[in-house]
Write a structure and sequence with these properties.
This protein is of the alpha+beta class. The chain folds into 2 domains: 17-180, no CATH class; 255-339, no CATH class. 45% of the residues lie in helices and 17% in strands. It contains 15 helices and 12 strands. Strand 7 (231-236) and strand 8 (239-244) form a beta hairpin. Helix 3 crosses helix 4. The model has no long low-confidence stretch (mean pLDDT 96).
């Protein structure tokens, strides 16, 4: 099936469930395998807007508190929200690669094997007693004479998480606590399900998108894809892409608000289908790596938005448009901002 870029973008919108669904927060994340989680408030909102009507950020937090959802570094050295089962499945394929890729960084930080062993021996028993916030974990190491400044503490947590020992779980106020990661049986064939979930929740995607997202060799990803019974191959503007099931092109999606660091943008190596160069640039001012919430019109980024702090007397949303929009579209944007329920 030959798809135009508009067709493909509309299919992606349906796959991403940005218009909502009848699924719980846990089911949303399980279906997607993992969702970008660098920005904690952003990922809570990203899950909420994809879930069943009436789902609030508090419901997403409750799924973390119940242990149904976790947050860790399953691939690319990047934080994601995922499920305990998916975390174990991904790490069996990516963990060694991530640790090998960060050897130089550990050397720069002075984190030799002996130091990591000591840090592990201090934190894991402590977590058997109770969850710990980041500050509490760093304090344990500092008291034992392990310096945590200059990024050393962060990297120690990261390293133990990539080992499959710890992850971010229940909340203590506005922040998550570290907890032990329970051992789980895994199977090399899990990669088939991982690739299928990536395609299901984001398709059409290119093989390069999937390999980039997982940070795995293209050959391994293609071999896994070849074993997905319901994977279909389409072409988007002449380029091969994958979808799950029979391709169906939905209608226009109208105006949608997406939170910061949303998978709509960060789920793909090639983002040209959903944003012009100007649309991409406005999301990350100065290229600082901090992605802003975006306004979509039929899936295309037309600008960014944010709500003032709750303490502000003026609660007027701040909007920066970079693409031309009609007066009717701007009114629809205003209505979407007024109706935004997720803080």
């Amino acid at each position: 099936m030959e798809l135009t870029p508009v067709d493909a973008r509309r299919m992606r919108f349906g796959a991403q469930l940005l218009g909502g669904s009848d699924l719980s927060p846990t089911d949303i994340v399980a279906r997607a395998v993992a969702l970008q989680g660098q920005d904690l408030p952003g990922v809570l909102r990203a899950i909420a807007i994809r879930s069943r009507p009436g789902t609030a950020v508090a419901d997403v937090r409750a799924a973390f508190d119940a242990g149904e959802l976790v947050r860790s570094w399953p691939m690319r050295g990047t934080l994601f929200a995922t499920t305990p089962a998916q975390l174990a499945a991904i790490l069996q394929h990516t963990g060694d690669r991530t640790r090998n890729a960060t050897v130089r960084r550990r050397e720069q930080l002075g984190l030799d094997d002996a130091t990591i062993d000591r840090a592990r021996g201090i934190l894991l028993p402590a977590l058997q007693d109770a969850p710990r916030t980041r500050a509490e974990a760093l304090a344990l190491w500092q008291e034992a004479g392990i310096a945590t400044d200059g990024g050393r503490g962060y990297h120690l947590i990261f390293h133990l998480a990539v080992e499959g020992r710890v992850h971010w779980g229940p909340f203590a106020g506005a922040e998550q606590q570290l907890v032990l990661t329970a051992p789980r049986e895994t199977d090399p064939d899990d990669l088939v399900g991982i690739v299928r979930g990536f395609v299901l929740a984001r398709g059409p995607v290119s093989p390069d998108d999937a390999a980039w997202w997982l940070k795995l060799p293209k050959t391994a990803v293609r071999m896994a894809a070849a074993r997905i019974d319901d994977l279909s191959v389409v072409t988007v503007d002449g380029t091969s892409a994958w979808v799950i099931g029979e391709p169906e092109v939905p209608g226009p999606s109208g105006v949608t608000l997406a939170p910061a660091f949303d998978e709509w943008i960060l789920g793909y190596a090639d983002r040209s289908l959903v944003a012009t160069p100007g649309g991409l640039a406005v999301q990350v001012p100065g290229g600082n790596g901090v992605f802003r919430p975006v306004i979509l019109v039929d899936g295309v980024v037309v600008g960014t938005w944010r709500l003032p702090p709750r303490s502000s007397r003026d609660r007027t949303p701040v909007v920066e448009l970079v693409e031309r929009t009609t007066a009717a579209t701007r009114r629809a944007i205003d209505r979407a901002l007024a109706a935004w329920p997720h803080g």
